């Protein structure tokens, strides 16, 4: 009997791990996905579901440094840093401020553009047309403001879009009131991004990837990887809470927790968690056709098959601090301010961990100095968008094939 080949082990069953696993399995690899939680148990569960092919604006923009004192003192602002966590987060925050320099922003934005623009094609390829149509709406997204004055960061976002030739349509208050009946008059103008879209259910979308993986012959196991032990002949051992698993190749896609596996391997990458919250309104009493992001108050509302999801806020407080319920409650106030008729009585709060790099670009490809270990992590605010195109890049690198786009901007080497 021929000896069984050790599988490729993918650690993490979020959008990053499962899209990579599915591409690999379909390319003929034997794939085992290891995660103590079922598919979509992390950030991929509770995100706002925006799939933003035409959004390529980094989170760190010029002028950030002036805002730091406010982040430290306003615990309920759109971005807050827990002062107790500041010493831990400081090196990452310094890199973040460096990435916000005007000289860096254009090249980061171009790399985001190269990745994000194929997202719908990748989702269609992974899901097939029928499931794509069931779960994804490539119908556009709306940005809206409560002031006629354009802020410097909004002007920069506009110039990045113009530079990349991204199609937009300006919306007057009347346009907004037609598109979103009942929207408050305090929202005075908007912008339609017709090339963007959303999923009606991020959890079901990622669970579907898990189902498709198993249909293709891949395996999901509920185990927590505790350590990767490099082997001498190229293969590796993945220690889990249940036992030791031999792997020909390993892909680390453990989201915000990836550093727990990287550090013992001597791999240091600036990965921090930007915690975010949502309020799921299960009986909102209003319908929206498109997602709308309130850029003045930094929150967004996405219509989903199980209600309206109000999401947003960034909190730098690490993986251990308990959720701050007040940050979630603010989302209810915000949505009520934008849609006075919305019924917020039936709601569920959630907090999740964005796996974020300082330059808003994921970390993809070969792990530095470790043959047959690969990285698919760090998607920050954009995993539902960048996850599938990233998976295409990583799976090609794992298979030793040419990457569909230049992978250099996403390499871990940029931090070495
Ligand atoms: C409030 C909020 C709103 C967002 N909105 C959007 C949006 O609208 N559009 C968008 O594109 N992105 C959005 N994002 C970002 C997006 O959700 C993330 O970038 C994406 O889900 C990250 O996917 P991931 O697979 O890397 O991580 P996760 O989904 O967190 O998955 C990581 C998995 O790894 C597992 N794991 C961890 N450690 C181990 C271990 N030791 N062994 C085995 N498994 C392990 C975890 O259990 C988890 O299942 C949002 C995020 C938040 C928090």
Q: Could you characterize what this model shows?
A:
With 416 residues, this protein is an alpha/beta fold. It folds into 2 domains: 8-45 and 204-270 and 360-415, 3-Layer(bba) Sandwich (FAD/NAD(P)-binding domain), CATH 3.50.50.60; 49-200 and 271-356, D-Amino Acid Oxidase, Chain A, domain 2. 32% of the residues lie in helices and 24% in strands. It has helices at 15-26, 43-46, 68-73, 86-99, 102-116, 119-127, 129-135, 152-163, 173-179, 202-215, 259-262, 325-338, 383-398, and strands at residues 8-11, 31-34, 50-51, 79-81, 136-137, 141-145, 169-171, 189-193, 197-199, 219-221, 225-230, 236-240, 244-247, 249-252, 272-281, 292-294, 299-304, 307-316, 347-356, 363-366, 373-377. The strands form 4 sheets. Strands 4, 6, 7, 8, 15, 16, 17, 18 and 19 form a 9-stranded mixed beta sheet that branches. A hairpin with a 3-residue loop joins strand 12 (236-240) and strand 13. Residues 11-17, 34-37, 41-44, 47-50, 224-225, 253-257, 260-261, 276-278, 311, 352, 354-355, 377, 379-385 line the site of flavin-adenine dinucleotide.
């Amino acid at each position: 009997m021929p000896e069984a080949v050790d599988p490729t082990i993918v650690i993490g069953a979020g959008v990053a791990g499962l899209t990579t696993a599915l591409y690999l399995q379909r390319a003929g690899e034997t794939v085992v996905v290891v995660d103590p939680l079922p598919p979509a148990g992390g950030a991929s569960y509770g995100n706002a579901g925006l799939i933003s092919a035409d959004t390529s604006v980094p989170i760190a923009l010029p002028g950030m440094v002036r805002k730091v004192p406010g982040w430290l003192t306003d615990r309920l602002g759109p971005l807050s840093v827990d002062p107790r966590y500041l010493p831990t987060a400081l090196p990452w925050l310094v890199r973040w401020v460096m990435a916000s320099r005007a000289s860096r922003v254009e090249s980061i934005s171009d790399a985001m553009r190269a990745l994000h623009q194929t997202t719908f094609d990748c989702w269609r390829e992974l899901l097939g047309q029928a499931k794509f149509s069931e779960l994804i709406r490539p119908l556009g997204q709306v940005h809206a403001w409560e002031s006629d004055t354009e802020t410097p960061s909004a002007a920069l976002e506009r110039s990045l879009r113009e530079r990349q030739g991204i199609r937009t349509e300006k919306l007057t208050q009347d346009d907004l009131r037609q598109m979103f009946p009942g929207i408050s008059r305090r929202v005075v103008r908007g912008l339609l991004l017709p090339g963007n879209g959303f999923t009606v259910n991020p959890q079901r979308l990622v669970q579907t990837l898990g189902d498709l993986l198993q249909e293709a012959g891949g395996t999901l196991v509920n185990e927590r990887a505790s350590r990767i032990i490099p082997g001498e002949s190229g293969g590796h051992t993945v220690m889990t809470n249940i036992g030791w698993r031999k792997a020909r190749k390993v892909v680390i896609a453990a989201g915000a927790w990836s550093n727990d596996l990287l550090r013992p391997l001597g791999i240091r990458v600036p990965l921090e968690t930007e915690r975010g919250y949502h309020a799921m309104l299960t009986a909102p009493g209003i319908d929206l056709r498109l997602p709308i992001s309130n850029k003045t108050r930094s929150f967004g509302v996405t219509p989903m098959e199980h209600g309206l999801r109000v999401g947003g806020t960034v909190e730098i407080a690490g993986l251990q601090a308990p959720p701050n319920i007040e940050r979630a409650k603010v989302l209810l106030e915000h949505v009520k301010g934008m849609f006075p008729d919305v019924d917020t009585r039936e709601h569920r709060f959630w907090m999740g961990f964005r796996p974020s790099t300082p330059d808003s670009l994921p970390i993809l490809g070969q792990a530095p100095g470790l043959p047959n270990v690969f990285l698919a992590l760090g998607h920050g605010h954009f995993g539902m968008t960048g996850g599938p195109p990233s998976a295409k890049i990583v799976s090609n690198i794992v298979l030793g094939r040419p990457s569909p786009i230049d992978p250099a901007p996403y390499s871990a080497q940029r931090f070495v």
